[in-house]
Amino acid sequence: METSRKGSLHREVKNLLAGSERRARENLGWLETNMPPIFFETMRGEPGALGTLCRELESLRENRFLLLAEREKALIVARLDVPGSLYETIRRITEREISYSEMSHSYAPVPGTGLFLEVQRYEMDRKMEQEILAGDGPPLPEAIRRRVLAAVRKEYPEVPPNLQGWLLEILWKNNPSYLRLSPPGRVARIVWLLHMGRAHGGVFGRLQEAEAPGERRESRILLAVSNPPERGFLAQIMEVFNRLGLGVRRAYTLTVSTGIQPWFLGTFYVRRRDEKVLAPGEERVRQLQEELFNTLILSNASPTYREFVVPRRMTGNEASLINAFIAFSHSTLAHVEPDHYAYDEVHWAFSSNPEMALRLVRLFETRFAPGVEGREEAYRLALEEAEREIEEYNTGHRLLDDFRRTVYRTTLAMIRRTLKTNAFVAEKHALAFRLDPRYLDDLGEEFTSDLPPERPFRITFFFTRNALGFHVGFSDIARGGWRTVVTRTWDDVVTAGNTLFREVYVLAHTQHFKNKDIYEGGSKMVTLLYAPATPTRQLLDQRLYQVQLAFTNAFLDLFVTENGKAKDPRVVDYYGE
Question: What angle do CA 426, 431, 437 make, to 5 degrees?
Fold first, then answer.
């Protein structure tokens, strides 16, 4: 009987092999008809992977995905398109730094499945800044230079002629195969995108309608950001598209080093789940822009992200604001009683009661979101309701309730005493809040007794992924210094955060007395940077410069004024100058 079963298996395998060549040719014909032309352009260097796809396409009727190639620095898979499929694959490789990604989507369902084909390609070959500066490697072929720069001059004349060649060289040094295999027009678009990102302070996004015939119309999303997070960033971006009901039909992303800082350059072709294209004025476009830019502030390692954003209980922007509330409340309270107001307990006050957290977010939005009609009355009513809910908060556990009411009151004081914020400026790397120092008096002597009695002229709080800080100035025109505390473990972060506010307050106060005989008053800024897994000094410096640039630009969002008010109309200004 064993021999009979083995013979039957052999016959089945022989029959499959006999028909495999014919099916492979048929599948190649199907791919040529139903995959976008650019798919075959970029797969020219992967004939083995394409051959595997032709031979094994039918296997997707029974398997979730088909592995086409897996090497040390490359991964190519094919799978059927279902909502979130791209996000699911990327999550599997979040611990690796992706230098290039590409996703192509078929025009028609795979025969016998009712679902479209999705081919995903990833390269893990990031170049470091010193490699780009060294300039090793083959020179840029003159033919590629000539064709791409001609396309740049024709399609993107706003790119200055003196930068065109340099930008193209940067792309070549990072990924020569991309330039060899891609059409000149596509490379020219990336040259333009890198230029626009640099011209817009490191954050740039654009919605375009992609050129496509008839029912294949798509929206093209272009995204350029400087200093992207090292790992998991692409997965976080895909989660945004998935959460907003947008299907990614094609995507091409590059992470490049310039010798100074890295850049993420993404091109995404999307359609709504109802198969419609995005219209420039629709609300979802605004949400998409805000959520994409917010990935620079909201860490995908944050418990708030995992517990509330991924399950769609709150938006990314709401989660970032709540994280800022947590960081502010902890640093404001812990310098007096670090054991009692431990970071984890402050965090739990919000995560255990997301309804209260979101109520505080809504109060903040009512006070600062641009264009709110009847703002004054709406804010008054919302403030009264929030105050009542906090005072009546009662779980039946007295000590716990007292603790959480103190945390909520601290956040409420922050909201009431914030004079202006860049929270509603989409293009930012960090949140900034200029505070009226009277919030310290709101807290009471219990939480200020260890501080100098003099109150400063201004306090500004900054927050972004893996960093927070305070700037304290004791006069309108003040000078001092900027100190950054670098931490390697989360225990270090919490310990340094316990005394962060008191440290910057005392330093600024001391500087103010040092400056008593000159016109400028005293000020100081102290930043707390969480920098785990930074094996080289260059990578640590890169993270430091990233945070310094983020906080500097956030500061300018608030303090660049016109006619006595913040220049950016998205900054609601209660201070004025």
Answer: 135
| 90 phi/psi in degrees, rounded to 5 | -65, -35
pLDDT beneath 70, residues of the chain: 1-19, 95, 212-216, 515-519, 535, 577
In this prediction, residue 3 carries a pLDDT of: 54
Q: Contact at 8 Å (CB) between 327 and 371? A: no
Amino acid 334: pLDDT:
95
DSSP state, residue 437? T
Tens digit of each residue's pLDDT (9 = 90 or more) over 60-76: 988 888 999 999 999 99
CA separation for the pair 205, 224 (Å, rounded): 6
Exposure class string for 403-432: b at 16+ Cβ within 10 A, else e: bbbbbbbbbbbbbbbbbbbbbbbbbbbbbb
What percent of the residues of the chain are helix, what percent strand, and what percent coil, each to the nearest 5?
A: 50, 20, 30
pLDDT of residue 19: 60
pLDDT of res. 137: 83
Name the 3-class secondary structure at 118.
Answer: strand
The answer to whether residues 419 and 435 touch, using CB atoms and an 8 Å cutoff, is yes
Q: Where are the domains of the chain?
A: 2-121, 126-294, 303-566
DSSP secondary structure letter of residue 445: G
**234: Cβ–Cβ under 8 A, 6 or more apart, which residues?**
90, 98, 101, 253
Provide the greatest CA pair distance for the chain.
103
Please state, in angstroms and rounded to a whole number, the distance separating the CA atoms of residues 287 and 279. 13
- CA–CA separation, 61 vs 520, rounded Å? 73
CA distance 351 to 371: 30
